[in-house]
Amino acid sequence: MENNPNSSSGKDRKLIERNRRNQMKALYSQLNSLESTSLPDQLEEAANYIKKLQTNLERMKEKKDSLIGVSSSGPKSPQLQIHEIGSCLVIWLTTGSSCSQFIFNETIRILHEEGAEIVNASFSVVDDTVFHTIHLTVGESAPDIYGAASRISERLKKFVRDADAYDK
Q: What is the pTM of this model?
């Protein structure tokens, strides 16, 4: 008989595979012993978990809506935030989609009247809410450079208040 090195290697592989299967079998039986719940109990637990996830989803949607200012009742009141950074202003204008175009156009008109130079204007729409962002500089063409930012801010706030009162 010849010594065939492959035959001992084959036996080793079979032994290793048998040991692996036995180990997996022991682990599965250990897992099954830990989980002592019946199938109906598991289904009820899964249904409760799904209900909990749905509740969390609704709560998160409400929180998101409150953070972005979406109201479920009636038209959206315009909101204005103005941040001054040196001679630059960043304006965030949030409106309902029904009056968005008018309020945006009037805002741009007021900015031009005040001599502001618009660097960038953009918008995005989420559901029935339009978010406008306007970046501008108050340059040398504006009369009274130092008071221009506060004057622009006051005019825009007054316009938004008046527009909101007109809608109601």
A: 0.51
